[in-house]
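Lecture notes, continued. The same structure-token format from the folding unit now serves as the input rather than the output. Read the line below as a description of shape only.
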């Protein structure tokens, strides 16, 4: 695993170190970027243009871990972020995790990621540093960016979307559910909320709040459940509590 950016170091030096590391990764990037990143959940991918999450774009995943009004209790959907990172990172590629809130912890999250040794963990001390680090990372072809996007306004959202589209990079921002009311330029917005099931397996309700290029009629919803092998599977809402309802992600 690569060393962290030293939080105790002067900000200028820390940001310079990050820029140098990103240039190093960019120089090793090979191949053309994918046009879409499949979630691995067939029902979800079928609802998205191109059969997955568009590359050259930012996608926001909001919610989990607390009440909409209680920001201090917010915990991002870390298992889902790890799942998306594993599917988005190309062979030999890197993922960049920005902000302590999205740093993976626990065996389940690290196992879901698959390759934590090719991850760069960035400890950005405030919103301004997070914004700079996310934008710089999105302008580095060949990396997948997963970050704490809490507290960003519409101007920051537009900057990040432009950065991703200009370089064809793939970004995932985690935000509290209470920020769904904020203006966003992300390609897709998702809401993740706990959905206790009839057994002990962790389960979440996933809602596609907005998707560019798709007419907003009814927000599609799916049930996502942790599988016995540690992955995440899509569960039919009608059969959520029945046997054999789980369809593991490929």
């Amino acid at each position: 695993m690569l060393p962290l950016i030293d939080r105790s170091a002067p900000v200028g030096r820390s940001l310079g170190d990050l820029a140098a590391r990103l240039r190093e990764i960019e120089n090793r990037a090979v191949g053309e970027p994918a046009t879409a990143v499949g979630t691995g959940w067939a029902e979800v991918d079928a609802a998205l243009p191109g059969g997955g999450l568009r590359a050259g774009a930012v996608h926001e995943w909001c919610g989990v871990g607390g009440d909409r009004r209680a920001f201090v209790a917010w915990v991002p959907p870390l298992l889902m972020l790890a799942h998306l990172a594993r599917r988005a990172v190309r062979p030999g590629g890197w993922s960049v995790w920005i902000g302590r809130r999205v740093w993976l912890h626990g065996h389940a999250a690290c196992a879901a990621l698959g390759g934590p040794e090719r991850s760069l963990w960035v400890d950005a001390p405030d919103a301004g540093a997070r914004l700079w680090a996310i934008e710089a990372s999105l302008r580095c072809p060949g990396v997948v960016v997963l970050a704490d996007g809490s507290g960003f306004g519409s101007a920051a959202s537009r900057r990040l979307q432009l950065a991703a589209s200009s370089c064809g990079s793939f970004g995932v921002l985690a935000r509290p559910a209470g920020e769904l009311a904020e203006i966003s330029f992300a390609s897709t917005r998702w809401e993740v909320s706990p959905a206790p099931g009839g057994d002990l397996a962790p389960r979440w309700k996933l809602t596609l709040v907005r998707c560019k290029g798709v007419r907003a009629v009814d927000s599609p919803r799916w049930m996502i459940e942790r599988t016995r092998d540690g992955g995440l599977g899509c569960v039919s809402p009608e059969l959520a509590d029945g046997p054999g309802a789980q369809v593991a992600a490929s």
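Point for the exam: Residues 235 and 246 are 5 Å apart (CA to CA).
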